[in-house]
Design brief:
Number of helices: 17
Distance between the termini: 32 Å
Order of helices and strands: HHHHHHHHHHHHHHHHH
Structural class: mainly alpha
């Protein structure tokens, strides 16, 4: 699962690496891609709504021996991913220009953001299917096949990006085209596997009928994953607009680099939490509560240790990570100064991820949704808008570690104080 997260990360990271190195316009083109981040996050949010909402329920039903209901849950999720993808693509294409300016584009950045978004949005359904349905492959125990979903697209993207961006001189349009083709290949792979002979539960047209009660269960549980990405989008919009006001286009580019570095460091955490969810869900459904506890403990220790290691690396070698994306001296200097603030106490981010994943895996949707909103909307967004009035541009970067401390600790402590006693009670009844 961690390898799957790594190769999945390459989709967008490779784009940013090549775009940032376009001669003469790399920094402003990188800012244009940063303006598109909220759109990408919104698409991911809806993929999570039906993918992360359906796959834990799917695992619970399989753990309880109810494969018929598991099949209907998976097929309902697939139908909703396709329908929602078509609707999102249509709306975003119609209102693209005002959306991009709302998300923080300046007149200089807008052409680059537009060129990327126009092509990327055409692949919306491919994004939704590959991201949303891959969880159902992993939930059936085919971790290697799930990894191949991401690997296929990532390798294609790595090959096509330099061809389209530099050899064919297509710039950001080429980067978007390479990504869409790669996502198409991943979506075809997922669909072929889930309709093939090797899978345990198949996609079936007869089970794609959308029942309201089943959809409510999927959406109720998927709201956590949806809110995590949707609130990320809101935070990115607030950051882009605030940075544009206080620092201009340069700092929009800096935030693009910072977001990219954070995604690299968050990769093993996401891999572990995604891998732990079906294990926790299955054993919870099967009544093996001791294994649920051990999975929570292992996942938490791994996530915290990974973040501590990456915090050390980013503090020691900040310029190295910035130069992966852009070599301009002004960009490197501004980014290095921001890194020491933005990534302070990085390990606290792991507590938020671990707590959230446990709530999702056990079907406790309301708690998962609350802590998604609490950290991003209640803490980060207000601090991002208020602190720069007193601290200047640094105020935007200070908001992140404060939110990690308060939000991460609150989420994880609540999980410990509610989930562990519940597991002991259920064990006692057994």
């Amino acid at each position: 699962m961690t390898m799957a997260q790594l190769v999945s990360l390459l989709y967008n990271i490779v784009d940013r690496m090549y775009i940032g190195k376009i001669p003469g316009t790399g920094d402003i083109a990188l800012a244009g891609l940063g303006i598109c981040f909220p759109i990408i996050m919104i698409l991911n949010a809806f993929a999570n709504l039906f993918g992360m909402g359906g796959s834990p329920l799917f695992s619970m039903e399989r753990g309880a021996g109810n494969d018929e209901e598991a099949s209907r849950l998976m097929n309902t999720s697939f139908a909703m991913l396709v329908l929602t993808g078509l609707a999102l693509m249509t709306v975003c294409l119609i209102f693209l220009k005002p959306i991009l300016y709302l998300f923080g584009a300046s007149d200089a950045i807008y052409p680059y953001a537009r060129d990327y978004a126009l092509i990327y949005l055409l692949g919306t359904v491919f994004v939704m299917v590959s991201l949303g349905m891959n969880g159902f492959i992993n939930a059936q125990g085919f971790g290697k096949i799930g990894m191949m979903t991401s690997l296929l697209g990532a390798v294609a993207n790595i090959i096509l990006d330099p061809l389209f961006i530099f050899a064919l001189d297509m710039g950001v349009t080429g980067a978007a085209l390479a990504t869409v083709i790669s996502q198409f290949l991943s979506a075809v792979w997922v669909f072929a596997f889930l309709t093939g002979r090797q899978t345990l539960v198949r996609l079936r047209i007869a089970h794609m009928k959308i029942a309201v009660q089943r959809l409510k269960k999927i959406v109720g549980l998927g709201l956590s994953g949806f809110m995590m990405q949707a609130t990320n989008s809101v935070v990115q919009i607030a950051c882009n607009n605030t940075l544009q006001a206080y620092g201009g286009d340069l700092y929009v580019s800096v935030m693009t680099v910072m977001t990219s570095i954070r995604e690299i460091f968050n990769m093993p955490v996401q891999g572990m939490t995604n891998a732990a969810q079906p294990v926790i869900s299955f054993n919870y459904g099967a009544g093996d509560y001791d294994r649920v506890r051990r999975a929570i403990a292992f996942m938490s220790a791994f996530c915290v240790a990974s973040c501590l290691l990456f915090w050390f690396l980013i503090i020691m070698f900040p310029a190295f990570f910035v130069r992966i994306f852009n070599n301009e001296p002004a960009m490197v200097e501004a980014s290095v100064n921001a890194i020491h603030i933005y990534f302070f106490g990085l390990f606290l981010m792991a507590l938020q991820s671990a707590g959230q994943s446990v709530f999702v895996a056990l079907g406790k949707a309301k708690r998962a949704v609350f802590f998604s909103i609490f950290r991003k909307i209640i803490i980060v967004v207000p601090l991002t808008l208020i602190l720069p009035r007193f601290m200047g541009i640094n105020g935007v970067f200070v908001a992140e570690p404060i939110s990690n401390l308060i939000g991460g600790a609150a989420c994880y402590i609540t999980m410990l104080c509610t989930v562990l006693p519940e597991l002991k009670r259920k064990e006692g009844r057994g």
